[in-house]
Write a structure and sequence with these properties.
Elements lengths: L2 H4 L29 H23 L8 H4 L8 H13 L3 E9 L5 E7 L3
Antiparallel strand pairs: 1-2
Helix pairs in contact: 2-4
Length: 118
């Protein structure tokens, strides 16, 4: 992991997770029917992942990043979680999906996103 990515990477699997900048109850898609404390932890992690990615983009306005490139920010999270966070941030109006593409982890083209600049 790069030094730059390390400063944005909370330990998402620690016993005491890092609180996100804001917690969204609908950021986690509960496809496994988790309940109680387990569901609360999953939601907290999803919110933290979104906060890390949002902060990263806010500090780099105008620059483009693919989900595969962003995965270095969350090295212990699956790429699907990075994609979910990017999709959620796009739905919230923070990010914009561009028509630019770059090779991803499987050398297939991936769309790049940027911060939405008003």
């Amino acid at each position: 992991m790069t030094e730059q990515a390390a400063q944005y990477t909370p330990d998402l699997f620690a016993d005491a997770p890092v609180a996100p900048a804001k917690t969204r109850q609908d950021g986690y898609f509960n496809t496994t029917s988790a309940r109680g404390d387990e569901l609360a932890m999953y939601r907290l992690r999803a919110g933290t992942q979104e906060a890390v990615i949002a902060t990263f983009f806010r500090q780099r306005p105008g620059r483009l990043f693919t989900p595969s490139e962003l995965s270095a920010l969350l090295p212990r999270a699956p790429l699907t979680s990075v994609r979910r966070a990017v999709s959620n941030l796009t739905s919230q109006g923070l990010l914009v999906k561009t028509d630019k593409k770059r090779p991803g982890v499987f050398n297939r083209p991936e769309h790049a996103w940027r911060l939405k600049i008003p």
